[in-house]
């Protein structure tokens, strides 16, 4: 994502090329939001570069060379899908599935390709777990071209990433939202929930979202939501947070209701609307704690009868 662009529209019923074009997807007919005021930001990935920093925790465990094998990836320089014998690495992560890092052979050696795979695996491990659920692969090419998301993959052109390295983590939060959250890519946010939120909110959070509401609104709104959840730790000033709350409050509620796990960026998963004392939880959440507005801190615990339930606890520590 540069300042925001899409390239071309395909005349097939209810279908558009999304994000430049990575794949053919069904367009979602969201109800337009009223826009009494212009969007407060141009593009949300550029609001602050301190949401994720090199010091932020990462779920990356290891990166291992698998071999040289044919892989089909999207390359913006060719503006097309390309099949090449690529360097393939497997990245493993805590609490989420492994991801293939597919490195263009233009990096000329296994060592050079491995350095790229390891560099970006560290950053991918810093992304919220709930935003990595549908990332099967990361495609790495040279070139000064936009990053991309969708197709169960992240697209990275390393020259562009290098030139914008201070914002690369925020850019990848945007892209992982395309891949794992956006209903247009069968993500975890429900289309009906998002459409209602859009209809109720007073406007769009950015000019990019307003210009491309069907393809960019979810991804543009997710990073402000992360900033809002982090508070001052995100580096966003209070006035900016207040603007976000005022502009897209119902979109924030839509993300809340989806219960997106923000670990390792935040220590605890998000509040689910169904979380209350005595409600069921799942094995992967045993020991996890959440701070609910209604019940205070809850912890997922295994009871003596074997049931997994949310129970009250005194603090989040």
Write a short abstract of this structure.
The chain is of the alpha+beta class. It has helices at residues 110-124, 158-163, 168-180, 191-200, 207-211, 213-230, 238-247, 249-258; strands at 15-18, 23-26, 60-75, 80-93, 96-103, 137-141, 148-150, 153-157, 289-292, 296-302, 308-312.
Description:
This protein is 27% helix and 24% strand. The protein has two domains: 1-270, no CATH class; 272-317, no CATH class. Helix 3 packs across helix 6 (213-230). The protein is built from eight helices and eleven strands. The protein has 317 residues and is of the alpha+beta class. The two termini are 38 Å apart. The strands form three sheets. A six-stranded mixed β-sheet has the order 3-4-5-6-8-7. A three-stranded antiparallel β-sheet has the order 9-10-11, with no helix packed on it. A two-stranded antiparallel sheet has the order 1-2. The longest helix is centred in the C-terminal third of the chain and has 18 residues, at 213-230. It has helices at 110-124, 158-163, 168-180, 191-200, 207-211, 213-230, 238-247, 249-258, and strands at residues 15-18, 23-26, 60-75, 80-93, 96-103, 137-141, 148-150, 153-157, 289-292, 296-302, 308-312.
Which bin fits the share of residues in helices?
Answer: 25-40%
Order of strands across the biggest sheet? 3-4-5-6-8-7
Calculate the terminal CA-CA distance, rounded to whole Å. 38 Å
Oligomer: single chain
- The total tally of domains equals 2
The main β sheet shows up as: 6 strands, mixed
**What fraction of residues sit in β-strands?**
15-25%
